[in-house]
Amino acid sequence: SQKIEQNSEALNIQEGKTATLTCNYTNYSPAYLQWYRQDPGRGPVFLLLIRENEKEKRKERLKVTFDTTLKQSLFHITASQPADSATYLCALDTGTASKLTFGTGTRLQVTL
Amino acid sequence: GAVVSQHPSWVICKSGTSVKIECRSLDFQATTMFWYRQFPKQSLMLMATSNEGSKATYEQGVEKDKFLINHASLTLSTLTVTSAHPEDSSFYICSASLRAYGDEQFFGPGTRLTVL
Question: Between chain A and chain B, how many beta carbons pairs sit less than 8 Å apart?
Fold first, then answer.
């Protein structure tokens, strides 16, 4: 069966450190993968999109890698700040008209 | 940037009544709109894909007669939960996409539905 797995346990890190979140998938062959941020009681906000032929993508303090052999994406936030505390969702395209399937998300807590 | 609004942001209704939720793309015309449902501490589950002027495509297990979707224009889609029951209480979120494929989705702020 198809699965998208993110670490369900919260990730607690200290301000200034790099946070690394993992997204693993099985029985998918996505052409692209996206990462979103979701705050409590709010809709997700798009962060980054990476295509299958791209190994890495960066945007300011964010970096995403995509390994189609390992079927894994890593999401990094460098120099993390308390304002980065949120739930981060990875999403895969299903190959049909922009439909996305979301992982369960990982809650990140950045403390002072 | 692309903004999607939803109305209402929260609604409480009695069991057996119907509730309509609106999703609008404010500054762009959306090729496609999507409706999701999210239960507490769970991820977003796609309910249906909505294209302007055509019938919505529902995901497996979603009752199309219970969750009525109307996509009247390129900027407005509505979701009506008919004969709502307590188990329909959830966070309903819509999103819109600019292009047909391979693009980010812009999400609305969500609507919290509570059915008593």
Answer: 62
